[in-house]
TrEMBL record, chain A:
Family: Belongs to the SKP1 family.
Protein name according to UniProt: SKP1-like protein
Pathway(s) it belongs to: Protein modification; protein ubiquitination
UniProt cross-references to InterPro entries, sorted A to Z: SKP1, SKP1-like, SKP1-like_dim_sf, SKP1/BTB/POZ_sf, Skp1_comp_dimer, Skp1_comp_POZ
GO molecular function: kinase activity
Origin species: Vigna unguiculata (Cowpea)
UniProtKB/TrEMBL annotation, chain B:
Organism of origin: Vigna unguiculata (Cowpea)
PANTHER family: EMB|CAB62440.1-RELATED, F-BOX/RNI SUPERFAMILY PROTEIN-RELATED
SMART domains, per the entry: FBD
Keyword annotations from UniProtKB, A to Z: Signal
Signal sequence, renumbered to the chain: 1-27
CDD domains per record: F-box_AtFBL13-like
Domain FBD: 587-657
Domain of life: Eukaryota
Name of this chain's protein: FBD domain-containing protein
Amino acid sequence: MAERGESSEAVMLKKTEEEKLRKGKMIVGDESKAGYEEEGKKVKLVTSDGVTMEVEISIVKEMEIIQTFIGATDTDDSFIFPISNVSSHILNQIIELVKGEYDQELAKKLSHDELKEILVAANYLNMKTLFHFIATAIANVIQNKSVEFVRDFFGIVNDFTEEEEAELRKTNAWAFEGVDED
Amino acid sequence: MADMISNFSADILLYILSFLPTKQVVATSVLCKRWNLLWRSVPSFDFCIGNENRKETYDQFFHSVFSFLRSRDRDQPLLRFRLNYFFNSFDPTIRYSYSAIRDTESIIKKRIEDAVSGSARIQHLDLSLDLYIVMPSVVFTFKTLVFLKLANITVKNIPFVDFPMLKILHLNCVLFSKGLDLSQLLSGCPNLEDLEVKHILIHGERKFSRLYNLINMAAKLFPFEIVKNVKVLSSDMFRQQEWIFDFQNLVQLKLDNLYIKNNWVELLETLRHCPMLQTLAIGYIDKITFGSSAEGHEEAVLPDPQSVPACISSHLKTFPSFDFCIGNENRKETYDQFFHSVFSFLRSRDRDQPLLRFRLNYFFNSFDPTIRYSYSAIRDTESIIKKRIEDAVSGSARIQHLDLSLDLYIVMPSVVFTFKTLVFLKLANITVKNIPFVDFPMLKILHLNCVLFSKGLDLSQLLSGCPNLEDLEVKHILIHGERKFSRLYNLINMAAKLFPFEIVKNVKVLSSDMFRQQEWIFDFQNLVQLKLDNLYIKNNWVELLETLRHCPMLQTLAIGYIDKITFGSSAEGHEEAVLPDPQSVPACISSHLKTCTLECYRGSIDELLFARYIMQNAKYLRTMKIKIFSYNGEKLNMIRDLSSCMKSSDTCKLSFHNYY
């Protein structure tokens, strides 16, 4: 998540051009899944950690924010889209999930931090199917877990006093009955 | 990650929370100040309660439901709504009278209507209530519904159905009033992709409109024409004559309760109509003939390779079956991995420690060409597995617990018959042959299912080597006609069919799906628990009662499925059934019977008569349990009839349950 929000997109782009020269190209995507008239077409995305990734058009099509860009600008293959909120690690995870046709088994392998970062990325990229998929995966993780677990999952600091919390628990007492506080 | 939480806008949090049970959603009010009031805006309602036995539990549940509805922010529309409960309407401690039922019905209906009114954008609705509850008709105005699941509910007075967005429809135990039918409901769901229909009465001659977009279907009693485009089909009805269309898109097929005759040829013919099939699952198979060739029956003939259905030769990837740990795998690699881990465990464990328990269960898909196809491959695999099992258990002369479920092609390693310490032996899908002599002096539990005995050996020989057997279960075993069985003096539990009764006179527990009165000529002096399934009743239970005279100590009687019961016999001029008069009631009924269960009560006069007879004559009866099998509204009448029976035992509790 380095430098997120610090650099303007233009600066980001320049920086990543240099990175690209240094690191070489990272090619991602599966040729066999590419679509009809745009067969094999890839779109270059620059991640928050400055990696340029070539991503299949079939995957980029789910990213409505990029689609808006493509629609708005007269682009050619050399155009590079900055996605300054998404790291290369998370983008790779996203590509795996989309290619895996949103298999719940894949979601189970993700860490809590990865789940949250992918959700933020899906929201930012406006990937509706991915967003729904990860939101339900997160709901599955926290379902029927204790208040403490949920606080920990979302990194919430309890800013209630003990008395305030006890009072709140009394207000909706039914919601706390028969719940294991493990 | 420290600032991650700040990246979650309230909208994102609300979206996540909308997939959680409402109780948990409300509990998030104590997480922190930012979350304190968030729960009030969550666009979902999700309350479930199971089969509770205290009225207070239901009262609390509905209190929670109503208090949530009162305090949530009603400007936030509900997008998801789930209310599932099972109301035990037959339990007198919960609610009993018709007026109570009506009151509850009207309150719940009102609350549901209140809750969802103004939620014209609702997408996901899941109601599992009680057959006495009529679905609020407001549901039929929800044109944005994508997912609709209804269970245990009555649907009536619907003028017109229009669910243009509905993709998923699951119906289980839904009672349609005369005006409306499943066909009408479906005609209003043109974009349905997933349909599941269980326990629904479909009126005979209705016409269904074609469902062009259907992908998944799990339904029975359904005309196939309308679902020709499905990709996934699950059915427990299979009649070859209905498979007259090509299912061009079908990739996954599950057939349950299959009745196979004519050596699978019919099924194979049917598969010709499924050219793209990749996954085939066969569930329970009715009346399969095991070991038929031993009886001079022709070797089963399957079509020759030239005429193998195209889907089998070209597409079939999976042939899973039920109940087997690694049976559902479709890749040779998965089996290889499985056996790799088995064998690597065996290699690396400390072989000085003898194995006391050994279980290996798998289902090997011998029909899948990618796994193994040729007989030589089968032989190879067989010999490897056999060798590994022998290796694994050799030197384990102290093994006590052995559970093998393999493949009929696998011959059980004969080393098993040297395990004199065996206490528990469970064999399934295995061939047993070349056994000179059986000696399991410690064996107490023997469960056999689908075991093929070679000509030399028979079940009778196996049993003769198990003098101390206490628990025997035998399923799908061919028993050669004239074998003599030796007496099993210690047998306590027996679940077996086609079995001579002489040898098991001492059992305490007997479960059988064969009942022939002429075989009950001994007294079962110890029998305390008897279950009879697939009972064929004629002559008005007299035969069964005569039989019970041979079970003087019986305390628990369960009657399962009854074959060919005469429905409404008196209506057809049939004489009123006559049961023996009270003087001649079998002693076990009048003196010992404590529990009686009718497991598949369908409400015929004969059944009522029997239930009444038991209740009138069993002086020590504590529990009379009736599992009602009924698709229609007859249930209440059955309850009423049964509840009005006189009981000679003061402590008898009459309880009703659903057969399903």
